[in-house]
Amino acid sequence: MTAFPHDRLVITPHVIDLARSPLAGHFDAETYVLGAFNPGMTVLPNGNVLLMVRVAEALREPVRDGKVHAIRWDGDGREIGGQAFGRYVLDAWPLELVDTRDPRKFMVPGGGWKVMALTSLSWLLPVEMTPDAMDIVAIHYDKAIAPQGPWQCYGLEDARISRVAEGQYLMTTCSVSPERHSTTLYSSNNGLDWTFEGLVLDHQNKDMLIFEGLVNGQYWAQTRPLGDLWFAYPPGSPWRAGPSINLATSPDGRHWKPHLSPHIRPRTDSTASARMGGGAPPILTEVAGRRGWLSLWHGVEPKEIVGVYRTFWTLLDENDPTRVLAQGEAPLLEPDAELTRPLEDLLYLRDVVFTTGVIDQGDRFIIASGEADLACRITHVPKDAIG
Fold first, then answer.
1. Concatenated DSSP letters for 23-55?
2. What are the chain's domains?
3. How far apart are CA 54 and CA 185, in angstroms?
4. What are phi and psi of 259, to 5 degrees?
């Protein structure tokens, strides 16, 4: 991987003021910022860059009195005066019944399948940055996006923002609840004020990325359905069974139909794609003299509990995104321990870079990522580094 001169953490947990959190004052327990990471990214009408930061807010002492506790939004989706009606509560499970090896979650007894609860609740914080995305202009606590109903009672995760047309922004988020693990959609005409549009994918899907523009009058998106069961490819196949990046189309950006053909799949000759998923919403650009949709995605190499997350790239045909024009074999971005070294006392994961946004700035790309599930990383990548 090439070292880039403009590559640093721009938002860390220290930046977040929890006195202005949506959770503030709801229960008598201290919280802290487990991570401020995986930011959706777009360009605002004034030319500044918006980072929609995932703030994972966790209990300072989740274990007490022989039980482990988690935060949950308790509300039925009603609104009063434009505000969601409900409150944040703490749930408790007997410690001897749960598995707490993964710092991000704990497993609870299920009926023959995996059941988990989270060690934090995530909400989304809009942070306005300078046009190069390197410095903070304003933090818009008044425009934070928090759970509104039982479909996201365990929080909202990993926003992806697509400026589909002038004055039309669409943002997908992963909403977590016992009801479903779904993709929810928000719309905006200015990138700062967002309207909830409802659920668009009702199955477990972590990475829905809407293309930044229409293709032959249709909205396109990359998706990544999950599950615990995969059917084997035949012996000798170049493909590995497991999560893959799929395609879907829509006439309106709200109702989606999966595409029949497979898209970007894990390969047997690469442990780096043993698990994979979408990163940044695809943008129409030119790379090495070829015009197409640039897709940045994450590939995971198995290691310990979480694995090593890296960012890879693929260039898709402008008029037929099912066609791959080019693909990089080497990772574009890798986790960088030097970036998080000043935050060593806050680290709970390592070996993770999770790209969530890209902007074309002529001679370079501005890439937004989450580093170590802890902080927001901005990297300026010259275009000649791809291709």
1. TTTSSSS-EEEEEEEEEEEEE-TTS-EEEEEEE
2. 7-385 (2.115.10.20)
3. 16
4. -80, 145
